[in-house]
Amino acid sequence: MSVLSAVLFCLPALTLAQVNLKPYDVSAAYAFTQSDLNHDGVFDRSELERFFREYDINGDGSITFHEFSNVVNENHIHNSDYNHFLHALYAVYDVNNDHYVNHIDFDRFFAIADYNGDNLLEKPEFVHYFSVIFETLESV
C-alpha cells in the first residue's frame, strides 16, 4: 500500500500527542533498533508476534486498551505526553477501529509498512512508515 494509505489508516489516532519526535527519521530509526530484537536488520513477523504476546496479557488473542495501558505503565513511563503518544499509537494499530488490537490488525499494519511486499520490514521500510506515523501524530 502507499504512504497515503498508511496515513489514512492512522487517522483514528489523531489525538493530542505532544511528544517531540523530530527528526522523525531518527526517532523511527531508534524505534527500529528497539524492535529488531535479534538485531538482524529486519523486523519480521516473529518479532511482531513477540510484541503482540507481550501486550496480550491474558492471552486471548486481542489487546485491549486496558492491557496496552498496563504494559505501558509497567515500563515505568510516567510522562503524560509520552503516554498520550503511545495511546495514539494504539489507535494506529487498531486498524479496523473496533477498540481491540488483534492479529488481523497486526497483519494489516505489517502489510501497510511492507511496501515491497516481501513479508519483511527492512529498516528503510520501517523508518519510512513510522516517520509518516510520527509526523502525523505530532502535528495534531
From TrEMBL:
Residues 1-17 form the signal peptide. Keywords: Calcium, Signal. One of its GO terms (molecular function) is calcium ion binding. Pfam families: EF-hand_1. Residues 43-78 form the EF-hand domain. InterPro entries: EF-hand-dom_pair, EF_Hand_1_Ca_BS, EF_hand_dom. This is EF-hand domain-containing protein.
